[in-house]
# Entry
Amino acid sequence: MKIAIACEDMDLESLVPMTFRESAYLMILDTETNEVTDIYKKRDEENMWFAERTLAHDCEAIICGPMEKEPFEKLALAGVTRYNGTGRKLWKAYEKMQRYQLDWIADYIGGPGAFGHSHSGECEHHHEEEE
# Structure
């Protein structure tokens, strides 16, 4: 399996940026060999190039920060799982993903949310509390 990891530098100690848009590089990692197979440098402001490279390598997942609408929809529609590794070192984020300890990016920045509404402010809906 291959995954993509958005990062600030080409270094394996690099951090995953606060947002996908802020990513300067994209690494493609082969999870069977734990080797980086490709590294791409930013080409466009919204990082659609990174989304396209992720799909071209048939990656099953991407570790990045929250995304803008266009790259989010391109990846989501293709079935690529999006994990939020914001602020973590690349390898730490990868290890957490393997242990199912990274949050899933369920929607794009400013989007309606996974259930059709956003929780960025006051929520008018009533949710059951867990006991």
Notes: Residues 115-131 have pLDDT under 50 and may be disordered.
